[in-house]
Design brief:
9 helices, three-stranded antiparallel sheet, disordered N terminus, disordered C terminus, elongated
Length: about 290
């Protein structure tokens, strides 16, 4: 269900096409690199390293990718600095780095979470008739990784995978409240607290108070703070160590939120607790992980 601007297979096919074109045009007159060429080269490098477990030297990569040595070494240097590629100082061979391995693990984990969470989202959408989402943190923002549209008249067209602010949304505030202690300061330093609607909390002191209230009550509400006329409710999904790994979210119109608030919160929190137990996590009540095989 995750939507991508370009599918991984399309990106790799494009990279392979670029590499074939380079091989077929050796000796031809050089032309200016098209916009985005650097991204294609990064993909070329990663695909080549992934196909060779023993690692490659910079010279070998330069030759096999038909790149000038200076270009290849500069590109590899940037990737090493980010942890995407690692360099063995003894052999001077490059391999896939720990940051990329961690990213691959996170992607695999999130996809598995989407699969397990889908029945719970279906139940919540069916019981509430509202739009429901599954969100996870992405650095100092968050993304929706799955959604189901309800039968209510609200149609927000929330695109999956599009980064969204933490300070003005129900999911975002929930992930801020239960995230690392330094996360709010990072958000303020990197992105500030821009006003999205007249109701957006833009004062750091007020936001800290709001996050403490969320920790106490165990769920989050966005009262038209990100989109005027739209309320959001979010409940935590916890992993095996009790950390919040995702959030279940309901979007509804302000008028409906005022009359159905208690019902929406009760059903959302109940299903979030069930999902947490299903993935081997805690349900937030101190009951601990569920036992498998029941």
């Amino acid at each position: 269900p995750i939507q991508y601007m370009d599918s991984p297979s399309n990106i790799l096919d494009t990279a392979r096409g670029r590499r074939s074109a380079r091989r077929g045009s050796r000796g031809a007159q050089r032309v200016a690199a098209p916009p985005g060429r650097g991204y294609g080269r990064v993909i070329d490098v990663l695909e080549l390293l992934a196909s060779d477990g023993a690692g490659l030297t910079g010279s070998e990569m330069s030759r096999r990718l038909a790149l000038p040595k200076s270009t290849a070494f500069l590109l590899l240097q940037h990737l090493v600095e980010r942890g995407i590629v690692s360099l063995d100082p003894a052999t001077r061979r490059y391999r896939i780095g720990p940051a990329l391995v961690q990213l691959a693990f996170q992607i695999t984990t999130s996809i598995d979470l989407v699969r397990v969470a889908r029945p719970y989202l279906e139940r919540l959408s069916r019981e509430t008739t509202d739009d429901v989402y599954l969100g996870i943190r992405h650095g100092t923002r968050f993304i929706y990784v799955d959604k189901l549209e309800g039968t209510q008249s609200i149609r927000l067209n929330m695109r999956l995978g599009q980064p969204r602010p933490l300070h003005s949304t129900a999911v975002g505030k929930l992930l801020l409240a239960f995230g690392p202690p330094e996360l709010l300061d990072q958000v303020i330093a990197e992105r500030g607290l821009p006003r999205m609607t007249p109701a957006t909390i833009t004062d750091p002191g007020r936001l800290r108070e709001e996050l403490e209230r969320i920790r106490q009550q165990g769920y989050s509400i966005s009262e038209a703070e990100n989109v005027e006329g739209v309320y959001g409710f979010a409940a935590p999904v916890r992993g095996h160590d009790g950390d919040v790994v995702a959030a279940i979210h309901i979007s509804t119109l302000e008028a409906r939120a005022s009359t159905q608030r208690e019902f929406l919160i009760e059903r959302m929190c109940a299903l979030a607790r069930e999902l947490s137990r299903d993935i081997g996590g805690t349900d937030g009540s101190g009951s601990g992980p569920s036992r498998r095989g029941h």
